[in-house]
């Protein structure tokens, strides 16, 4: 990372503000704060135009169908074996249909302000390879969608994931080709890595996620550790003051907003770290991490992801909200009086349906928060960061109670720089592979491939003509 900063043009007040599309503030101890694009720092819009980005927001353990899917609000899960349950769920409309995304379901209502910028895509399926755990496959194989038994050296149908394939095209000029974010704060490693990671360089080769905000913060903004300081904004403050004098009015406002957002991230990290330290002194039945405010932690990691995309440190990210099947509880602040296990609730859906619906909506609120943050970031051409990103909300299960692999909950926000139509509910025909969406997204990002995993074609309804 240090070598990258040394070789990249950065801000100097004396150089007439000419710079590359990536700019940095410098400070003591090797600190470097990446800056978003600002007109005052460039003579013209970069010749290559606005960068395209891809991000994936993964929610574990599926959703409660009646809260998420249109037309299933009054659906009652039938009794019987799993095969009958899976057959009865999902395919309420097995035919292809495209219509405007009008009234949102209760779980999706936090996205009301973004209806025109999202697509709800229903009816897509994954295949299951017998002999391995359902939860492990739904996480680790989510972005690879390899055909069952096609990977001889693996018990899971796990291949190179979509994010790395796309990063080979749109990530070669960024400091990080990909960044992997995880919101799993727990250290009680009950399950294997296959339950807790969605990004893989290839079969058996994990792309390790960062799950500590401080570690991610230092990775993004520091070239050296300096224990005398904790905040990068303090280290670069003198350079920031000098630069701001030479910015135009609009850029000065943008800079102030950005600098304040980094300050807020630092404050939130300090608050959570102090809380965690205090909790560690108390004896609980659960780990101290279980008592950290869940939404605050997710939003903090999300703020770091948005900054990384905004400043061009990466164009490709994955964001895993939580691991599959772990019973360790979380504190869903504002929902329950004490920490609760999402996985545990999912296996008692008939008695805990209301609580599970609250958790689903809670996760959607965090996704909506990130959409709002991305929409507020303006690009060189007046569009937003959200407009130039394909940001996919999804889960590897269609329903956490039945473990079904059909009719997955998928929402794609943003248009990838105008490549996708938005504001639609697209219901795919029965049996449509999820890999069709991954193929469509890969090609939209400029990846020239004839097929992805078990895909059998693109999803034409999302493509702009």
Would you write up a description of this structure?
The protein is of the alpha/beta class and 465 residues long. The protein has one domain (2-462). Helices cover 31% and strands 13% of the residues. The chain has helices spanning 2-7, 65-68, 82-88, 134-140, 162-170, 213-221, 232-235, 237-244, 249-279, 294-310, 342-346, 349-376, 435-444; strands spanning 23-26, 32-35, 53-58, 97-100, 118-125, 179-182, 200-202, 205-206, 316-320, 389-394, 410-413, 424-433. An eight-stranded mixed sheet has the order 4-12-5-11-10-3-9-6, sandwiched between helices. A two-stranded antiparallel sheet has the order 1-2. It has a two-stranded antiparallel sheet with strand order 7-8. Strand 1 and strand 2 form a beta hairpin. The radius of gyration is 22 Å and the shape is globular. The model is unreliable at 1-21 and 77-90 (pLDDT under 50).
Key structural traits:
465 residues, eight-stranded mixed beta sheet, two-stranded antiparallel sheet, 13% strand, 31% helix, alpha/beta
Question: How far from one another are the termini?
Answer: 40 Å
Strand order, main sheet: write it out: 4-12-5-11-10-3-9-6
The Rg value, from CA coordinates, equals: 22 Å
Average pLDDT score: 85
Structural class: alpha/beta
Total strand count, please?
12
Largest sheet: 8 strands, mixed
Report the order of strands and helices: HEEEHHEEHHEEEHHHHHEHHEEEH
- Give the uncertain stretches in residue-range form: 1-21, 77-90
State the share of residues found in helices, binned by percent: 25-40%
Beta fraction: 5-15%
Shape: globular
Put simply, the count of helices is 13
Write down the domain tally. 1
Q: Quaternary status of these chains? A: single chain
